[in-house]
């Protein structure tokens, strides 16, 4: 009988999840490793060597580590669920003129659900991942996510969609460690190759981080259907032709193919007319934003305007002081100062200090 019970650990084959599994094993948990295959390179239109969390090498690395430490390891093929939900949404969002946030959807609707479903079958009380974040239960009974110790690696931003029920069974072993600590632990384990593994900041199913090529591969005749639309200014003046509205993002400056006497940026995308609006940097600035699909973490409800909230509109965003106001099923965010390049479809995530209040998708 194990000291702490049975726990299912999501193992990608990378250094973070591998060390997390070993840490829990050495703490006395009965660890079961699980590697989820979410996609394959060929279906994404890739032509170079398959890399990343779903490659055969990564799966073998996870299995080898589990065998070496004497705990079971399973592979779970969730390509159908992942493709139907995450990839289809990714394509649909770009076709709607928005910039999607696939990691949030994957965590919320695919990985946690898949892990807990398998955990139940294997009689595991808990699940664990290698995310850099912390979790605790408040006196109110609610489970709260807070930022990881390593500010450069903190991943709380992509966890705002996880439900209270799922958080109640979740552990984040790496939350109180820096990335350098984890690499050193891998070295101390005698796992030199693992410790040296590089990190990927790309979307796992988009080869070479080229989302435009991915869209062309997934949507038949997309280029022909959207090419030749107008670039316009905010006053409606046509200033050139673009390659298709799905191939541009809010705030984009490079690769526009039109020249001006000053830097110009994508300020708006109008899919109905296949139009892309360009403007100066100051035209990207906004004082307010609306957020949909709200999931609250720290509190069950926010009934009064809440001041001094830090709102992040991008993963690597430092965040901006703001006031948030619940308006029916949406949240209005009023920033203390203008923010630039608010991109519909991206996540807006709210913090009270280091605690995650919740989040949603920018309208």
UniProtKB/TrEMBL annotation:
The active site is at residues 106, 204. It is found in: Cytoplasm. SUPFAM superfamilies: Adenine nucleotide alpha hydrolases-like. Keywords: ATP-binding, Cytoplasm, Disulfide bond, Methyltransferase, Nucleotide-binding, RNA-binding, Transferase, tRNA processing, tRNA-binding. Residues 227-280 form the tRNA-specific 2-thiouridylase MnmA-like central domain. One of its GO terms (biological process) is tRNA wobble position uridine thiolation. GO terms for molecular function: ATP binding; methyltransferase activity; tRNA binding; tRNA-uridine 2-sulfurtransferase activity. ATP binds at residues 10-17, 36, 130. Residues 289-361 form the tRNA-specific 2-thiouridylase MnmA-like C-terminal domain. InterPro entries: MnmA-like (IPR004506), MnmA-like_C (IPR046885), MnmA-like_central (IPR046884), MnmA-like_central_sf (IPR023382), Rossmann-like_a/b/a_fold (IPR014729). Its main location: cytoplasm. It catalyses: S-sulfanyl-L-cysteinyl-[protein] + uridine(34) in tRNA + AH2 + ATP = 2-thiouridine(34) in tRNA + L-cysteinyl-[protein] + A + AMP + diphosphate + H(+). It comes from the Bacteria. Its EC number is 2.8.1.13. CDD domains: MnmA_TRMU-like (cd01998). The record marks 131, 346 as: Interaction with tRNA. Belongs to the MnmA/TRMU family. This is tRNA-specific 2-thiouridylase MnmA. It comes from Pedobacter psychrotolerans. The gene is mnmA.
């Amino acid at each position: 009988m194990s000291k702490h019970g049975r726990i299912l650990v999501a193992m990608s084959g990378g250094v973070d999840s591998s060390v997390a599994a070993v840490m829990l094993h050495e703490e006395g948990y009965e660890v079961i490793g699980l590697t989820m295959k979410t996609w394959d390179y060929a279906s994404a239109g890739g032509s170079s060597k398959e890399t990343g969390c779903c490659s055969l090498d990564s799966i073998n690395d996870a299995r080898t580590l589990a065998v070496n430490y004497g705990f079971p390891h399973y592979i779970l093929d969730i390509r159908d669920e992942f493709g139907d939900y995450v990839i289809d949404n990714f394509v649909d969002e770009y076709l709607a003129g928005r910039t999607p946030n696939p990691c949030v959807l994957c965590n919320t609707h695919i990985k946690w659900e898949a892990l807990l479903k398998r955990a139940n079958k294997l009689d595991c009380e808990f699940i664990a991942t290698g995310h850099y974040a912390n979790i605790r239960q408040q006196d109110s009974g609610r489970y709260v996510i807070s930022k990881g110790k390593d500010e450069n690696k903190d991943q709380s931003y992509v966890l705002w969609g996880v439900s209270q029920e799922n958080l109640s069974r979740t552990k984040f072993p790496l939350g109180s460690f820096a990335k350098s600590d984890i690499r050193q632990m891998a070295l101390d384990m005698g796992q030199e190759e693992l410790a040296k593994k590089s990190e990927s900041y790309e979307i796992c199913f988009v080869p070479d981080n080229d989302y435009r090529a991915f869209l062309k591969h997934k949507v038949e005749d997309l280029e022909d259907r959207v090419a030749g639309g107008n670039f316009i200014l905010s006053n409606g003046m046509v200033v050139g032709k673009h390659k298709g509205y799905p191939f541009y993002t809010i705030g984009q400056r490079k690769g526009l193919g039109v020249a001006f006497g000053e830097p110009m940026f994508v300020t708006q995308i109008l899919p109905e007319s296949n139009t892309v609006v360009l403007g100066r940097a100051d035209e990207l600035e906004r004082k307010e934003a609306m957020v949909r699909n709200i999931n609250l973490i720290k509190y069950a409800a926010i009934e009064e305007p809440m001041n001094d909230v830090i709102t992040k509109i991008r993963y690597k965003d430092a965040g901006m002081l703001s006031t948030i106001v619940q308006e029916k099923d949406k949240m209005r965010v009023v920033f203390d100062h203008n923010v630039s390049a608010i991109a519909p479809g991206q996540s807006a995530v709210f913090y009270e200090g280091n605690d995650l209040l919740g989040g949603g998708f920018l309208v």
